[in-house]
Amino acid sequence: MKHRxxxxxxVAVPVRxxxxxxxxxxxxxAAFAIMLLGKADTLMxxxxxxxxxxxxxxxxxxxxxxxxxxxxxxxxxxRFFSVYEENAQLREQNARLLEWQSAAxxxxxxxxxxxxxxxxxxxxxxxxxxxxxxxDSGGVFVRSVLIxxxxxxxxxxxxxxxxxxxxxxxxxxxxxxSGRVLLVSDLNSRIPVVTEKNRVRAILAGDNSPSPKLxxxxxxxxxxxxxxxxxxxxxxxxxxxxxVGQISSVADGVIRVQPFADFYxxxxxxxxxxxxxxxxxxxVPSSASPSRQR
Amino acid sequence: xxxxxxxRLDRSxxxxxxxxxxVFLVMLSALPVYIPGYGQVxxxxxxxTVFYWAIYRPDxxxxxxxxxxxxxxxxxxGSPIGLHALILLLANWAIVSQRTFFQGKSFAVIWWCFxxxxxxxxxxxxxxxxxxxxxxxxxxxxxxxxALTVGVFPFMAWFLARAQHxxxxxxxx
Lengths: 294, 173
Known about the structure:
The structure holds two protein chains of two kinds.
Chain A lengths: L1 H39 L1 H40 L1 H36 L8 E10 L7 E4 L12 E3 L4 E8 L4 E5 L6 E6 L5 E5 L7 E3 L12 E4 L11 E9 L2 E6 L8 E7 L20
Antiparallel strand pairs in A: 1-2, 1-12, 2-5, 3-4, 3-12, 4-5, 6-7, 6-9, 7-8, 8-11, 9-10, 10-11
Chain B lengths: L1 H28 L8 H4 L3 H12 L6 H15 L5 H15 L1 H4 L4 H27 L6 H29 L5
């Protein structure tokens, strides 16, 4: 009997070791398979990912709040020390903005007169959803954030995401109650843009660096440091005219854009769930809906 | 009868603690911290916990645990799914296979080994990401992350040692 047990052990131990080795091999192959599958069938992976994130989003939401509070407190202390200079700066800026305001009011009045003269069909307003950033990308290879709003709030994959400063990115995955926003600076971000003054079209391509670059430039186009870049609205995915950033460097044909939004301090963002022109506005000519004018 | 059941429950809870504490720590590391640039080079918490448990209690942190933790990290962080699963799996395997070497070694040696593992992990992940995107991505952030992770490791190891002492130690008694 004893002999049998021993011989059993003699066989069982190597078999077990073999199994363990194969388990490792199997897991390595599985990891590669998942990576390739994620490359081939992005939709399936996105769905799997967002359903998991949906479950943990409330926990991350709750956990991220105290951190935000601490950060805000530190910010407040910081600002306290620069309050004098900031005040002077703001006064100066306010004076300048008041001038602009009167100019804007005059232009608005003029504009409305022209519109009346032209029987212009007003565009429908855009609708927004607001969301809190609950997860920062802890990854070196992706520039994305998690937000606590999803399809339940009307958010869809591809929607533009903005904050007070400008464009942040687009919704890459939308779960029911959570979503992932791919930032403008991500390697996979491609956004049709146009320079505000010269109306030169280009694609803003992220490369994981803080300043994405402009590509697909028309020949002989001129760019200067400081030129403002806005979304062009081509392709109909994004509304036109969202401020994106300004050209920060032009060197050896590589034009880099410094985004207006500060990606490091995102706390609340707005998602443009619907905008004029997205549904039918681009197809329906303005004369086709005279009833709406009245 | 009941005490036996409770004891069993207590035992399995302690056995699962290394894995689930790692899951929690990885989630904490994915929260926004509002430090400029930190999100890009955030310390790789998963690698630290996998390394620690592979050295000190590999029986409580098998390869499949490293694999699942990696998937979890990929899902939260947004990296290609399977990337960290592979990295953590390889790290776990590398340490466990060299286990006899680590026995009785000082912390300095272990720290040195961790820096090698972190460097290897960052290089492997860089190569994979370049392959997946079919472009050359800047390797600077990933090397920076490795350096930061190595710098933070002693604190993490201290914390995990306390946790091990408090939660896992009673299993051996």
